[in-house]
Amino acid sequence: MTEVWLIDTDPSVAETNEVITPRLVWPRQDGLEYYVEHHCGMLYILANSGDGWQVYKVPLNGSPCNPTLEMDGLFSTKFDKVGGFEIVGDSCILSVLSWDEGIKLVLKSLTDPGKAEQEIKLGSEFCTINHIPNTDINNSDGFHFSLSSPIQPPIFYSFQPSTLSVAKLPGQEEMSGVKKFDCTRIKCLSMDGTHVPITLFHKKELTLDENNPLLVCGYGAYGLDVEMGYSPEMIPLLERGWIIAYCHIRGGGELGRRWAQDGRQLNKPHTFEDFESCISHLHEAKYSQPKLTAAYGISAGGLTVAALCNRAPHLIQAAILKMPFVDVLTTMLDPTIPLTVQDYDEYGDPKEDEAMYETIKKYCPYYNIKDQDYPPSVYVTTSMTDKRVPSYGPIKYIAKLRRSKQRSSHSHKNGKPLILLEVGQEGGHFGSLDSDVQFNQTAKEWAFLYQAIGLPPR
User: Fold this and answer.
1) What is the tens place of the pLDDT at every residue in 166-199?
2) What global pTM score does this model have?
3) CA-CA distance, 213 to 183, in Å (whole number)?
């Protein structure tokens, strides 16, 4: 849900010492997502509508209490994933994320809505676009933005609607090392027949012989995309022959609102089925094999990876769970825990809905640890100051997992599997902002992967 308020920043208004009253653009509604731009005395609003998006126009001084009736609908579009929009001159520019083609800009005329939209493809190697705010409302000369990927730092560009030209802004350094890697986009078939996108990064001279170490990253919650911004910590793995796979599983926002809805509440098991199917497909396509595969998840992504460890432990050799949400059932049954009530929209309320209770109980990682062979070594991190996922959840998860492994007959190729827990005193849910601390943490995680999988140090 979205709710946007406007504040008049005109200096003449501030000088009067009058109380400035914020004005609501569009009342909050369940399922409503919208973005607002101000241009030449008008508000332009991009809002989700059915399976697509609708662009509206309303006078700045208006006060729509029922926007769908009082605003002019300019045009609609059926794109699943719109990253944002800008108004430049007499044009509306949408940034669209397609997991088949990469990122593209879509240009639509505001003065001639019947004119066909124009598409400008920006390259399949990019995964993230960020709009650069235009602070000069009288500027109609162009639109600035940046493009990035896990292996590419942000590159800044300018787009000129009048000529449909895209130019790189001057003064930016080239990263020659990036040219050693490729971005490959594939799809797998999930258990219910749904096609799930996967984005792969790897060396250009990749050989599909099952002998490549593979790190699989997943999230799949809250309608958010798996994080694919610039990640310099991934470069050392890629240089040493690893494949990094980002799985765009249901519950995330990669394919729009319907994709997110199909992985929440009673549909939450789709998230775990998709992740399992992605890894199985990568093995079948000979990108890697189970004994060379590791899974990586943060927060709700840790839930996805931990569920995999219970459902299909034979698919991976190691797992890294950072601040993982592993005791879903206990948390969702206690409304006094921070964020529990807020998370009803994502996971449901098991106290009020028996079907929701049974669904969560079947996938909750903590409650589904059992006496079975658990091949993967596990490295869990948590923080005593984490207000989103309290540390006692990951701590008791590790304790129960260790008890289960003691009863397991599985023999790890390097001896006993590593079951590691690291509890930080600071940093909270998102970890330390100190770059030295971050790099030190990454070094420990990658060292864990090499030892757990049995790769020689390089």
Assistant:
1) 999 888 876 766 788 999 999 999 999 999 999 9
2) 0.90
3) 16
pLDDT digits (tens, 9 = 90+) for 126-169: 899 999 877 665 555 688 999 999 999 999 999 998 889 999 98
- Choose, from 277, 299, 377, 383, the residue flagged as catalytic: 299
- Which of these is catalytic: 182, 408, 429, 432? 429
pLDDT at 71 exceeding the cut of 70: no
Active-site entry in 80, 274, 349, 386: 386
DSSP percent split of the chain into helix, strand, coil, nearest 5: 25, 30, 40
Among all chains, which residue has been given the structure tokens 């731009």? 37
- Are 243 and 289 in contact by the 8 Å Cβ rule? The answer is no
Whose CA is closest to 129, among 102, 101, 107, 92? 102
pLDDT digits (tens, 9 = 90+) for 417-452: 789 999 988 877 877 777 888 889 999 999 999 999
pLDDT of residue 69: 44
263-289 burial string, b = 16+ CB within 10 Å, else e? bbbeebbbbbbbbbbbbbbbbeeebbb
Residue 12 a catalytic site member: no
Give which of 362, 93, 345 is closest to 223, Cα–Cα. Answer: 345
* Sheet hosting strand 82-88, strand order edge to edge: 82-88, 91-98, 102-109, 118-121
- 446 Cβ partners below 8 Å, 6+ apart? 233, 236, 237
Q: Distance between CA 318 and CA 295 in Å, rounded?
A: 6
Q: Is 299 marked active-site?
A: yes
Instruction: For 270-337, give the DSSP string.
Output: HHHHHHHHHHHHHHHTTS--GGGEEEEEETHHHHHHHHHHHH-GGG-SEEEEES----HHHHHT-TTS
Average pLDDT for 109-126: 85
Query: Catalytic residue at 144?
Result: no
